[in-house]
Amino acid sequence: MFSLTLWILAAFLLIISWGKNKDNTINSLKVFLKFFRSMALLILITIWSIGFLLAFLPSEILSKTMGQEAGFNSVILAALFGSIVLIQAFIAFPLAGSLLRQGANVSAIAAFVTTLVMVGVATIPLEIKLLGKKFAFWRNALSFIFALIIASIMGAFLR
Amino acid sequence: MKKNLLFPALLFTLFLINILVYFSDSGKGFSIVLFSKNYLLEILSILPPILILIGLFEVWVPKRVIEKAMGQSSGIKGILVSFLVGTAAMGPLYVAFPIGVSLLKKGASLLNTSIFLCVWASIKIPMILFEIKFLGLDFAVIRLTLTIPSIIVISLLLNMILKKSICNEKT
After folding, report:
1. Contact criterion met (CB < 8 Å) for A28 and B10
2. Contact B39, B91 (CB under 8 A)
3. Domain locations along chain B
4. Is B98 within 8 Å of chain A by CB?
5. How far is CA B138 from the centre of its chain?
């Protein structure tokens, strides 16, 4: 649904652009090709690696790490999991929700959800290629640290 | 030359391992392909139109517009603009990387580009609705109110660290 709107929008604007100025439109398509070429192989490799990860990492391991045992270790483990795996939020939230209802550690769940969206170890090669080593490293490192902080505060608030 | 061969070689290695896995455990081998295929389809449905829009953006939007809205001297207004642009997020974070590159090229400040990327990653309205539904209103609201200031602090720190390193490289 979302993506269909995007395709229509892109096509629509391309046609308008073509009507206004052909050279500009060709240049914009060149930008498109440049990005596509620089990302394509890396994306394929990333996706395939994620396929391996998901096939070998059963959800029981995930639930065990975020299980009942409180303590900061489980929070860090959950944050690491969230950083490494690349699951859509639409799959991850129901999972996290059922763990929470089973009595999982609130901090651990918060750490998992926060790192899941903000830290992406699997996509770091792509981020380095486009935005540079320093940017990729520090954005992910800082996001990881702040996810732990957010998780700790939430653990104190919600019990 | 060597660098050009690295990615194809990696891809080929994954292919070989996948075949090996398939022969030792056909179910596992098959599910690797299935998971990967799902992700590939998701990316192919969203990345090309975004890249086309980036191309059009680079050609048609004048640099001074972005410089004024999100540049070095845009201040708090720039931060607000970056937040708003970030919430228009469609798709996963890696789709936003090329957009970040374009914004930087057009004169957006590092601070605002980082805010844009972090907001894109973590604040999406459909995602928030999902979080409320499965993790509860309290959980979602507290996490969101903690996330917003975190994003700004992360971006300020990132900006400081990278500026420093750029200065060091120059001297």
Report:
1. no
2. no
3. 1-60, 62-171
4. yes
5. 27
CA angle B49, B52, B57 (to 5 degrees): 125
Helices within B25-136 (DSSP H only): 26-60, 63-70, 75-87, 93-105, 110-122, 125-135
Six-digit token string for A36: 């596509």
Is pLDDT of A49 > 60? yes
Measure CA A131 to chain center. 16
pLDDT digits 0-9 by tens, B125-141 = 778 888 888 899 999 99
Q: Count of CB atoms within 10 A of residue A1's CB?
A: 5
| Cα separation of the two ends of chain A | 38
∠ Cα A57 A61 A62 (to 5°) = 90
Which tens digits make up the pLDDT trace of A27-41? 999 999 988 988 888
Contacts of B150 in chain A (CB under 8 A): 146, 149-150
When CB atoms are compared, the residue of A28, A56, A154 closest to B58 is: A28
